[in-house]
Specification:
The chain contains 1 helix and 11 strands. Strand 4 and strand 5 form a beta hairpin. The longest helix is centred in the first third of the chain and has 4 residues.
């Protein structure tokens, strides 16, 4: 069992930045075997892929955040982060980190790829 806990959400103005972090309750060795993703869900909408970083460090972004968001991981700390810049009101959502042993969709873009989920953290961007 892997417990994931996100932190760093909050309120930002359009054009601003926020940094999300996610800590996993497993050893660094176990953590390094997971692909880690960030997904988000806005009210009334389906869960949406944001970014993935694989066990080998390969990174994927959705087109909507490419060039604005940066995903990174620190295996020694069992953490994954999402640096969000140039925020837009449409980035408003609950952001969740998730862990997957295998990726069955390209870049881990499918929510069903992920076995473990954090509780989510709210990000609100005002115009």
């Amino acid at each position: 069992q892997v417990h994931l806990v996100e932190s760093g959400g909050g309120l930002a103005q359009a054009g601003g930045s926020l940094r999300l972090s996610c800590a996993a309750s497993v050893s660094d060795r176990a953590f390094s075997k997971f692909a880690m993703g960030w997904l988000r869900q806005a009210p009334g909408k389906d869960r949406e892929f944001v970014a993935t970083i694989t066990w080998g460090g390969v990174i994927y972004y959705s087109d909507s955040v490419k060039g604005r968001f940066t995903i990174s991981r620190d295996n020694s700390q069992s953490t994954v982060s999402l640096q969000m810049s140039s925020l837009k009101p449409e980035d408003t959502a609950v952001y969740s980190c998730a862990a997957a042993r295998q990726l069955y969709t390209y870049g881990g873009s499918g929510p069903d790829d992920y076995e473990y989920w954090g509780q989510g953290t709210q990000v609100t961007v005002s115009s």
